[in-house]
Structure formats: C-alpha cells, structure tokens
C-alpha cells in the first residue's frame, strides 16, 4: 500500500482539507435516517472506519442496524468506499444501537461494541419499569473492517447478576481507546436502581452513571469498572493524559443534565474514578448532547506552529494561548506529553454550531480554550480521531441546514488549523471562553440566511456565557432572600399571637401549642432529610419546600375569609355607632332581656366554626414546619459543596447575616399590620370608632401572612432553574489538579497501587480518587442511627452543651412567642408598639451577640476551655440582668366587681347593688374608666351609666358616659381602659431584656464549637442533626406551651363563649410578671449550671492529660511506681 505523503506536503495543503464530506445522508422519500456516528483510525493501513446507525425514522426506537464506510487516507485526502451494512452485528428480535469501536495495536484486531435492544422498547420504558431489555455485544475484524466475525453476547460475562440492578445500559457511542498499559477501554453508562425503601426497588429512582468496560488480555475477556458516582452522567468518552510526574491518568468527559459537562479522573486505568466535577466552560444544550474527546502529544505541533508562522511568530512563551506557566513539568522538558481536543455543540440553548475546544493542561478543567466553530448550524453527536504523527484530525458529526439528523459528515483538519484559529481567538477581544470564532471567511460566506435555522445567519454564540443559575454567588443571594422570607412567615405568628387569641377566643396555652406546632413536622423529618440529602436534587427540593411554606401562609390566613366579621360588641351584631346598647336600662322601663342562646344551639353553629378555624391553623402550622425542612440544611450543604473552600465561610456568613434579619422583619411587619383594623376588607358602613388602644381592638393579623407567603413564593422561583450540581469554583479546580499530580507521583515512586491496598487506605491516600462507597439504605440507616445516637449522647461535653442550649432555646422560644403579649398586658401598650420595640431592640441585640461571639472565638483563637469560660460568663451576666425585671412592672388594674377568691381561680363576684336594676348582660365587654378613682368597669351598664356623649377634637373622637349611678358624682366615665401609670418603664425593661438577649446569644458560637471539637469527626454531621432535633423536641415544642400555661394561671377574668372559657380579659400583673420572668430565670439558671459542669469536666480533662503526659515522659522509676499501685505501665501513658 502506498505510504502517505510527508508531513511537509500535508501542511502545505492545509486549506484544501477545510470542507465537509457527507458520508451518510437522509433519504427523504423513504424516511431513512442515519445517526450516532463513531470514528476509528487504523494507523498501519491508513484507514478510517466510519460507523453509524441506520434508522427508519430519527427516533431511537426505530433503529435498524449498523452501517460502515471505509476510507483510505492518502496524504491530506480520504477516499471513501461505498456504504456497507453490518448484518453480522445483530441479534434476532433486537435492534442494534450505539457503535463503539476500538483498535488493539498488538494484534491489529478491531473490536466493534454495540448494544442490541429488544423490539421497540425505549430507554425511558426500561428506566421506568426497571426491566432491562439491552444486551452487550461485539464483533471483531482482523482486516481493518473488510470482514467481520459473528456476534458475541457478553451480557452475562461482563455484567452478570448485577444486571438486575441496572434498569438499562449502553456503550459509547463513539470510540474506545487502548491505554499505554495495553488495557482496552470501552466507555459505557448504566441506569442504577438503588434499594431505597427496605427491600423494595424503586425503578423510577434509577440514576444514570458512567463506567468503563475493559480488557487486560487483548480482548479475550472483559470486565466492568465501578460506577462514577454520585453525579448523574450518561454518554461519555475517555482519553489518556499525562500527570505532572509523567504517570498516565485517565480523563473522562461525560454528558449530564446540568447544562455543562462533567469531568472525572482515574489513576487506576478506569476501574474507579474520583468524584466528578462540573466544568462551566463546556456547556450543554437542554437535555445535553454527546461529545467526543481525544488526547494527542503537542511537541511536534508546537514546532510545526513556529515553522508555519516564521521567525516573527510569537514564541511558546509569548503566545497568549500557549501559556507555559500552566504546563506540567516533566523530566527532559517543560511540556505536557498530552493535550486534549474536544468536540461538541457550543450553544446552551439548542444543538447548533459544532465547536472544537483545546486544553493544554488536561488536569485543569479551567484551561479549555474558546471553541473554534467547525460547522455553523444544526449539529449533534460527533466523534474525533487523532493522527498525531501526521498532525491530522478527523471529525465525524451529525449536521444539517434545518435539522441535525439530515446527514453525517466527515471533516479532516490539521494541527496548524487548530493552533492558528486558537491564536486568533486568544489575540481577539475578550477572555478565553467568552465568544466562539467562525471557521474562516469562506465558511461565513457559504452560510447564507436560508441555510440556518429560522432564516438567520450564524451568530456569535453569546449563549456560551455561563448562566446566572450556574453561579454559586447568585445561589447565595437567592437563598438569603428565601430564608429571610421563610423566617418572616415563621415568626409572624409570634408577633400577632395576642391578636389571634382575641379574634378566635383562644387561651395562651392553646396559642402556645399553635406556635409550637410547626416544629412537629420539622422534627419528624429533619434528621432523615439531613442524612439522605445528597441523593436528591437539592435546589429543586428547596423550591418545593418553599412552595409548601407559601401554601401554609395562605392557609394560615384562610380563617379570616371563612369567619364572620369581627363583632367587638355582643349586643350590636351589625356594629352600628350605637352606644346605647351597653347602657343601663332599668327593668321597670324595658322588657326583660332575651335569654342567652343555649349551649346546644351555640355548639351547632359557632362552636363548629371555631373548631374548623383552629384545625385549619394547626394544619397550616404543620405544613409550615414540613416545608421548612429542606430549606436551611440543603442550602448550606449546596453552598459548601460548590463554593471554593476559602469562600464558603464568607458565603455562609452573608447567608446568616441576612437571614437573621427575618425575625426582626416579622415583628416589624406585625407592628404595621396590627395598626389596621382586622376587617379592613369588609368595613361596615359608617366605619368604627375603635382605636388601637381599645382593649377590644383586633388588628389585620391575616394580612401579614399573605404578604409573607407572596415573598416566599417569589423567592422560590429561581430554585427550579438551579442545576442539581454546579461547577466548583475555579480555585478548587486547580487544587484538584495538584491532588491528582501528587497522587500520580506517589504511584510512580513504587508504592502500592490502589487495587493492592485496603479500600479505606486507598481512599485516604488519594483523597477521594477511589470509588465512593454506596450510600446507606433506609433500613441500614435505621440500624446504624441508634448506635450513633447513644455513642454521641454518652459524650458528657456534647450532652451538657445540648442541655444548656435546650435551656437557652426554651427561654428564647417563650420570650419570642409571648413577650409582645407580656408588654401589652404589663405596660398597657398597643400590640403594634410592642412588636416595634422587639423588632428594633431585642432582635438586633441578639444578632450582635451571635456575631460578637463568633468574632471573639476567631480573634482570640479560643480553645475548648476558653470557650467554656466565655459561655459561663455570658450565662452568668444574662442571669444577673434578669433580677431587676422582677421589680419592673405595673400594678394590676382595679376592676369593679372582680376580686380574688382565696384558694380558687379568680372569677367574677356579684356586681354592686347599684347596677342590679340595669339587667346588664353577663358576657358583654365594653370597658369604661373612672379617671378620678382609677377604677375600670367592664361595661357602661355595670357603671350604671344611662347616656353617652361623643366629643370630637383634633381628628380624634372620644366617648364619655354620664349619669352613672355607680360612680361618685355620677361620672362622667371615658370609654376604654384606664391609662397605665407606669408605662414609662417599658423602655428600661426592654433595654435590660435586649442586653440579656445579647449576652445569651454570645454563647451560641462558642457552645457550637464545643460540640464540633468534642465529638468524633465521622459523627460531626449527625451530631449537629441530633442537636437540632433535641432542641426542637425539648425546647421549641414544649416551651411555648409551658409559658402559655403559666400565663393562663394569672388570669383574673375570662371571656365565655358557648359555655367554654375563651380569651383572658384581665391578668394579675404582679403574678404575670413573677411567673413569666421567673420561667426565664429558671431556664437561665439551668444554662448556667450546665456551663459550670462543662467547665469542671474540661478542667478535669486538662488535668488528666497533663498527668498522662508527665507519666509518659518520665523514666522507668515513674513507671515502676505506677505498676506498683496496681496499674500496668502502658495504662498510665497517653
């Protein structure tokens, strides 16, 4: 056979080979379509083998068989033989798909791998049913593709019983390779079915993973490697590259659903790969596309590049593209032994504009060049072949003018074309990877308007720029806003707890249970979600959780719309401006009042509606807890996984700083909404004369839930566009290259290979390059969890820190829920003003305490002992500041007709005789105040008043009642409660509370560090999950109920509704203050005691460690003394 022309002759005709040759064309009349190209070059015979699938339509299920065209290369041209069907590559009743050829150099044999799929069963049907219908087969040729052997089925030999856990599988498509070691590699992928629920398979959960099929005996026997986990990867190709120490590393480029390629490396010839990393410079169109990669040696190419450009051309060091600082060093030179060439559509929107990418440093995914457009227009699958000795490359690719499957074309190009185009790109405007370049002027002219999709000329693909949804910084911004909105909706109920009680007649115990009920769903799922979070699409699940939170907010506001309008006066159903309804009407002048409705009639209407409203609110709180489960843990883990290690703390700090403003904004929103009347959407004609200072006032509590729900819904939208995995930040990619080079260097020095070591040692040695062990199933997790839980709880430091945090969280939960109500009742301030004080003083103080604690731990480099001291001092100071709170408050209002009954609950007595002739309703509530005696009456009727007087002044109306028989001098008395004489104490009280909150929050970071530094490394993640679970179970769930029950015991007058006790109208202020502040004092004392015990244990541990070190460093005499005391010498050493 005639030898090809010399290198110089080829290079002189470089422009003549810059055109496409269609090898397989669609037959429009018959509908025959050719797809899935595979290309192989055989150097000894200078032969190209071009394979494809012949299909009756373009659909996968309509594949028929494989076809082949052989091409003989002569210099820079290739002469192609006619199309030949490969009828040998068939199984009866099956269709043949995915050609994947490989050439074995020693024997000269060509192995053509493919899959045979039963009937017309699609891949999706196999994945959904979990029933594999594919067979792994190959044929071989000893004469460069002129003749082929019979088909051989390798399914049982290679896959065996494991095929039961593969929903389906496929090889290639594209070419395989032979490594320097002689191993033959066939890339493949499989849909793996994990056992998710006990012993039952869930086929719909099958996840695709790439893997390698290999042979170490020249193709006699074949085996498969481990799945490349955990990233979902499908079609892949591999190339052998050179590490920094000159050792071979196998590079894998795989298709993913994440809008960019996945790259992984193996240092044990493909048996297992490290965790794949996503490359944002290699984009994928929607649903992805197959791509091809080849490696080649660059030394001769660089010399040829300088010869081509002459003496004035840039040298290696001067070329912007050929950056010598990125080249790995090796013995005998500074150049890498291999570069990578990659072909793939360059658009992220659709399969158009086939590009050729070059990477001079294969171990660094950030060094891909901008693409050189080989074909402008629709394109699809492609396969590359490298002729490195001749400086030539071949590319077989799908293309067309309107659709990608119109033809399969072949393009032959040279190394000088690549370098010249890359040099033009590097000297042009913009950084590498920003804008793709057109092939040449002739190609631009050939691409007329009608040749491109939609009648448009081939544009510069601006869509190559990375999407904002592949930016971890944008994710941090979105997650900060989402957590801010989520904490707003979670904290809003606490800001309006007294209003909800008043509106629906709830006791504080019931409202406390309602506030704590969102922890029920959260607690039930948080540990499992944290443990199995890596298996799911985290951003999407965060989005689903946010949607549930938004629905919970809407459901929380539903009771307002299904309830009747609020009636603040029981004797005035239509709420007119009728003040005579509560006046004294002697029985001698008017008929006897109609008796109150019976309990039976009341239960059939009002009570049923009351139960429905309460049930809806409890259901909404449960949904709120369930929806909140994935938001924080998944968001934090996602940021930590894909942010650079040095940037992750900064991003998390920004996240926490923004989200900590959520509770403050919730109280602020409550302060604004509660200024509006509850029925602002259905106000009666003529309006109302209530003001926010009236004890009967109910604010628009429901409106804040609608606003918060809308904010959460808007913040949830971006999460449905974030990928399951995004590329690691670039600094991490360079670190990965150094790790790989170091690992390859270790192997080259003669140390044991990964296959010869234990799995644990291999994984530690290569820092993640070994195959990751399969995840635990649910039943395995249930078996392991109790042991880990007991081991963690037996750690005294961990247990005491958690107990101290339980005490602190109980204090915080009770204060956050009922402090607004406490301020309203104790100091007679409005609900909106109480929320404003908390949102502007207490919440910012707590945030400052958390930040200050973190700063002290970082700046002072506090160890466990000093962290314990800081926690002890913070808890002690917080406890001391709570002592003055017992004496800062207002006395109980004097309510006419209400006194204490010794030994029993407070209750109403008989009214004074002056109001007996008035026949006053027992459950009416329209308080009036005698300003001279500072005595309050429940209604004007009970004060014996017979006439009202309304006064208008300064845009403010005031109602007075006169002719009051129970008031000295006959009145007048003013409508509303009496003003408090000590409301000025609210600001000093809040100042001490805020300062105490800051000191209590000061212990947050150091106590958390005690947990992280006190448990085993492998238990840290689960220990944190256990910590949050215990805090919810022991603090956030019971504490609001405990505080609510304590507040209920201080009530002196209850409203009645259908014969049941409803909302409390008046409290004993002294008893309320003592019990509420006393509970806070109790929990602070418990926290202080726990920190004192922690400090004692730490001191004992330090003392024991010092003794052990002294014994271990002393002479034989000390050991003899130790043994003489009944201990072995070894027991006294460290």
UniProtKB/TrEMBL annotation:
This is Solute carrier organic anion transporter family member 2B1. It is found in: Cell membrane. The keyword Transport does not apply. NCBIfam families: oat. Residues 745-764, 1109-1134 are annotated as: Disordered. The gene is SLCO2B1. It comes from Canis lupus familiaris. Residues 908-968 form the Kazal-like domain. Its main location: membrane. Pfam families: BNR_2, OATP. Residues 1109-1122 have a biased composition (Polar residues).
């Amino acid at each position: 056979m005639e030898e090809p022309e010399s290198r110089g002759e080829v290079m002189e005709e470089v422009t003549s080979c810059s055109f496409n040759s269609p090898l397989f064309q669609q037959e429009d009349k018959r509908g025959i379509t050719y797809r899935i190209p595979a290309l192989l070059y055989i150097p000894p015979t200078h032969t190209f083998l071009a394979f494809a699938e012949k299909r009756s339509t373009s659909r996968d299920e309509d594949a028929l068989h494989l076809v082949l065209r052989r091409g003989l290369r002569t210099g820079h041209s290739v002469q192609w033989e006619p199309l030949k069907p490969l009828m040998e590559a068939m199984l009866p009743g099956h269709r043949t798909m995915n050609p994947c050829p490989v050439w074995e150099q020693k024997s000269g044999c060509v192995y053509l791998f493919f899959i045979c799929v039963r009937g017309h069963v699609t891949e999706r049907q196999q994945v959904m049913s979990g029933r594999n219908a594919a067979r792994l087969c190959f044929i071989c040729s000893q004469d460069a593709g002129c003749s082929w052997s019979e088909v051989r089925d390798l399914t049982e030999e290679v896959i065996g019983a494991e095929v039961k856990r593969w929903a389906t599988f496929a090889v290639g498509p594209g070419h395989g390779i032979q490594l320097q070691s002689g191993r033959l590699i066939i890339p493949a992928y499989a849909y793996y079915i994990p056992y998710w629920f006990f012993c039952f398979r869930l086929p719909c959960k099958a996840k695709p993973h790439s893997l390698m099929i290999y042979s170490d005996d020249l193709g006699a026997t074949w085996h498969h490697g481990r799945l490349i986990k955990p990233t979902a990867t499908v079609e892949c190709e591999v190339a052998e590259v050179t590490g920094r120490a000159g050792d071979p590393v196998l590079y894998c480029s795989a298709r993913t659903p994440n809008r960019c390629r996945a790259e992984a490396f193996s240092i044990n010839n493909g048996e297992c790969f490290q965790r794949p990393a996503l490359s944002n410079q290699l984009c994928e169109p929607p649903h992805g596309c197959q791509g091809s990669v080849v490696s080649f040696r660059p030394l001769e190419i660089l010399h040829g590049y300088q010869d081509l450009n002459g003496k004035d051309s840039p040298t290696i060091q001067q070329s912007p593209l050929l950056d010598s600082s990125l080249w790995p060093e090796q013995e005998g030179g500074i150049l890498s032994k291999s570069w990578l060439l990659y072909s793939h559509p360059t658009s992220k929107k659709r399969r158009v504009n086939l590009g050729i990418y070059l990477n001079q440093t294969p171990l660094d995914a950030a060094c891909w060049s901008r693409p050189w457009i080989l074909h402008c227009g629709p394109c699809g699958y492609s396969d590359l072949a490298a002729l490195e000795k001749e400086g030539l490359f071949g590319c077989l690719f799908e293309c067309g003018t309107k659709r990608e499957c119109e033809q399969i074309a072949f393009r032959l190009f040279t190394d000088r074309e690549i370098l010249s185009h890359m040099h033009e790109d590097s000297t042009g405007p913009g950084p590498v990877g920003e804008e793709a370049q057109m092939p040449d002027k002739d190609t631009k002219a050939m691409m007329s308007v009608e040749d491109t999709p939609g009648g448009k000329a081939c544009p510069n693909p601006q869509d190559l720029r990375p999407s904002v949804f592949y930016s971890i910084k944008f994710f941090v911004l979105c997650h900060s806003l989402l957590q801010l909105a989520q904490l707003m909706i979670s904290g809003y109920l606490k800001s309006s707890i007294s209003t909800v009680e008043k509106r629906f007649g709830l006791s504080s115990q019931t409202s406390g249970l309602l506030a704590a009920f969102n922890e029920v769903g959260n607690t039930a799922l948080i540990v499992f979600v944290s443990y199995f979070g890596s298996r799911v699409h985290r951003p999407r699940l965060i989005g689903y959780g946010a949607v549930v939170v938004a629905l919970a907010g809407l459901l929380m506001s539903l009771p307002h719309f299904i309830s009747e309008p609020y009636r603040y006066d029981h004797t005035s159903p239509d709420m007119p401006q009728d003040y005579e309804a509560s006046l004294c009407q002697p029985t001698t002048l008017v008929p006897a009042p109609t008796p109150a409705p019976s309990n039976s009639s009341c239960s059939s209407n009002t009570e049923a509606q009351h139960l429905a409203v309460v049930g809806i609110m409890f259901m909404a709180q449960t949904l709120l807890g369930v929806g909140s489960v994935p938001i924080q843990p998944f968001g934090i883990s996602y940021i930590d996984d894909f942010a650079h290690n040095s940037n992750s703390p900064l991003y998390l700090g920004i996240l926490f700083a923004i989200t900590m403003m959520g509770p403050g904004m919730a109280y602020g929103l409550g302060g604004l909404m509660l200024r509006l009347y509850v029925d602002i959407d259905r106000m009666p004609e003529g309006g109302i004369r209530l003001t926010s200072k009236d004890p009967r006032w109910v604010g628009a509590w429901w409106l804040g839930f609608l606003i918060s729900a809308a904010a959460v819904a808007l913040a949830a939208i971006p999460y449905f566009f974030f990928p399951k995995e995004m590329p690691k930040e670039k600094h991490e990619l360079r670190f990965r290259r150094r790790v790989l080079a170091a690992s390859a260097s270790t192997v080259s020095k003669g140390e044991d290979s990964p296959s010869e070591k234990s799995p644990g040692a291999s994984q530690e040695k290569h820092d993640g390059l070994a195959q990751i062990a399969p995840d635990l199933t649910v039943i395995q997790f249930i078996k392991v969890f109790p042991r880990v839980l007991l081991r963690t709880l037996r750690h005294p430091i961990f247990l005491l820190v958690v107990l101290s945090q339980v005490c602190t969280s109980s204090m915080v939960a009770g204060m956050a829920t009922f402090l607004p109500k406490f301020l309203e009742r104790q100091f007679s301030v409005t609900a909106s003003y109480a929320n404003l004080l908390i949102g502007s003083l207490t919440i910012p103080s707590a945030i400052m305490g958390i930040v200050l604690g973190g700063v002290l731990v970082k700046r002072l480099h506090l160890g466990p002992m000093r962290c314990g001291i800081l926690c002890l001092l913070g808890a002690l100071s917080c406890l001391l500041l709570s002592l003055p709170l017992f004496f800062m408050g207002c006395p109980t209002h004097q309510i006419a007709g209400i006194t204490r009954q010794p030994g029993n609950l407070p209750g109403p007595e008989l009214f004074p005789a002056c109001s007996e002739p008035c026949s006053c309703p027992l459950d009416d509530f329209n308080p009036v105040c005698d300003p001279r005696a500072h005595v309050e009456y429940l209604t004007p009727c009970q004060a014996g008043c017979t006439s009202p007087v309304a006064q208008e002044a300064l845009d403010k109306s005031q109602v007075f009642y006169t002719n009051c028989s129970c008031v000295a001098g006959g009145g007048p008395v003013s409508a509303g409660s009496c003003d408090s004489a000590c409301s000025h104490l609210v600001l000093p009280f809040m100042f001490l509370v805020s300062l105490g909150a800051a000191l209590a929050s000061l212990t947050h970071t150091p106590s958390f560090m005690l947990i992280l530094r006190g448990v085993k490394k492998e238990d840290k993640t689960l220990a944190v999950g256990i910590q949050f679970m215990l805090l919810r179970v022991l603090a956030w769930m019971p504490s609001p109920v405990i505080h609510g029950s304590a507040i209920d015991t201080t009530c002196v007058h209850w409203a009645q509704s259908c014969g049941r006790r409803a909302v409390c109208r008046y409290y004993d202020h002294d008893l309320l203050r003592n019990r509420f502040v006393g509970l806070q004092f109790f929990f602070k004392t418990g926290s202080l005691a726990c920190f004192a015990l922690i400090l004692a244990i730490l001191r004992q541990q330090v003392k024991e460690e010092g003794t052990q070190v002294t014994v271990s460093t002393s002479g034989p005499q000390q050991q003899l003394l130790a043994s003489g005391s009944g201990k072995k010498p070894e027991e006294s050493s460290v």
